[in-house]
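The data layer described in this paper is built around a simple, fixed record for each protein. We quote a single record here, exactly as it is kept in our systems:
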Amino acid sequence: MLFQRILFLLIIFISTSIIYSCNPNESKTNIMNDSSKSYTHTNNLINEKSPYLLQHAHNPVNWFPWGEEAFEKARKENKPIFLSIGYSTCHWCHVMEHESFEDQEVADLMNQHFVSIKVDREERPDIDNIYMSVCQMMTGSGGWPLTVVLRPDKKPFFAGTYFPKHSRQGRIGMLDLVTQLADAWKNKKTEIDKSAEEITQYLNVQSDQNIDGNLSDDILDKAYNTFNKQFDKQYGGFGNSRKFPSPHNLLFLLHYWETSGNETALTMVTKTLTEMRKGGIFDHVGFGFHRYSTESNWFLPHFEKMLYDQAMLLLAYTEAYQATGVELFKQTAEEIIEYTTRDMTSQEGGFYSAEDADSEGEEGKFYVWNKKEVIRILGKEDGEWFSKIYNLTDKGTYHEEASGKATGQNIPFLTQTFDELKIPIEEVHNKIQVLRTKLFDVREKRIHPYKDDKILTDWNGLMIAALSKAGRILDESKYINTAEKSVQFIFSKLIDADGNLLHRFREGEAGIKAQIDDYSFLIWGLLELYESTFKLSYLEKAIDLTNVLITDFWDTKNNSGFYFTGKGGEELIARPKEFYDGAIPSGNSVMYSNLLRLGKLTAQTKYDDFADNLGLAFKKTIEQNPTSSSQFLDGLTFSFSQSYEVIIVGDREDEKTKEMIEAVNSNYIPNKVLILIDTQTDRTQLTKLATYTESYISIDGKPTAYVCKNHICNLPTTDVNKMMEMLNN
């Protein structure tokens, strides 16, 4: 009956296609509110902190932020809610804004028939998660702008994505849609109410499912086989057209190779990382990665840059370098960090969210180059040399999207790595660095794309994890220091008066209760930072946050998984759990690995028990589509394969202790945890966190290593080589 009612509503309204939506982060943005301008309209969004909401604060649509005021108005006036969800760097969000929400005719209709609410999906992923599920259920696809129509009790009865002002090419326009929805609200209320109730009931049934039976390790092979079938052997990546970096897929394959010895898995990783670094998806002048490629060869990007992409790609390139020793991967990791610290870091240490694709109203204008301009800046000889290496032509490689005509503008990209150019590597690196810097200095004088400067706890957690790991693998303390500064920022600015973690900081104000991603990603960052610094405060904070998650987010009814939101939060129509690893990993996927690591670091079996039950919660998702949760599969490789606990007892400043730590960090051993018992400090705090460490002592006062594998411990050794033999057997 539910799907019959959904079909009935879709036939009435003609729903939408994902073609005209950002999936997940296609981007263009309007300029933020300019205090020097005068505006005809100002609505209820004007006092919000979200850059996305502020972009709509002068629409003639009488927008409200999500809150009781809007729902009370809808109840009193017996109007449905028009809910529009997007984010500040979303292309089609702003196309729809310009076409419809800035249009007085559309606004008048909306104001007459709806109470309209705007939501920033990056501020309120909990709301977005629920209503995106509704859209996918009703239409078979999703994306942003997300358009959902609700009853005043928040229960949905219609969903879609982008709508133009006028109906065209089989797509209903806003003028017709609003009119038809208003008519249905008046004349088909019984059908609407039944559908809204059944859709809401279905959402809650899905969230409460309990799964029996354990996953077996053959699911890892099934996931690998699926990736192998989808792999593009010519250009790397998966699929044949629009390609997202999806670094958590690569991390799973890298770890799968390490545990299985399957060389094809490693080839998929190295080929993809190499081709991405060569392609236009990488910013060869200013560094960092754009959001995704519209073509299979990674050439033409959507030009926005997201913090979470930089973090996850930094993890992938760093681990790939450690596993293979390929210098290009190390260089790329260092360049991602240079971009992030230069352009995406606040003075206080928090990391900003995103940079837009547009400047001066044109997508990519900031990033493209005319060959004559390059020759003028670099001189004829160097300009021609640079143009040859980066494939700049007089005609231009960057074409108009609509007409396909050449623009005379170029996106720098490589067809060969520097190793393949057969020029002495140091010579080409030094020369390119000089020429690139000249171009960068000129580019800096251009009008920059808009920067979304809100600081999100979850995305900062990912970057903390990535920088911490890069710092210890690349032996660069400044990367670790940058991660520590971000942690200090979070614990000084994103904690409320009651000690609770918050989600968003902007313009001196923190707000919005933290959700599972905030906790799980920050815990990940703290665990990586502990293993890079051995400062017990980071391990202690990770344990404290994990205990909050278990207390406030765990599904105690079914004993299977963390809810997206905690106890005592806003009551929404459903309390979902997220298991899908999309543009970023799910909080449950990350938390699975966190629990496994905490179990090994502390020897507290409760963390293993929660990990086991969390694994059960993934069973249905994984069996239906093994590659949909690759971050979880990454944790599963840790669980199923042999793993190590390495405990080093010694003075942190002793050269022999440092040698042992560096030996462990320089070798690619992903399935391990590393603990330092510093003989020069009081053990009280460590034994409180991990009571088993009390019995570990040094031999003859020398730095001593204890290596345990699969819960079996070897005899201690003071010899670095013997320690590594134990780890490599």
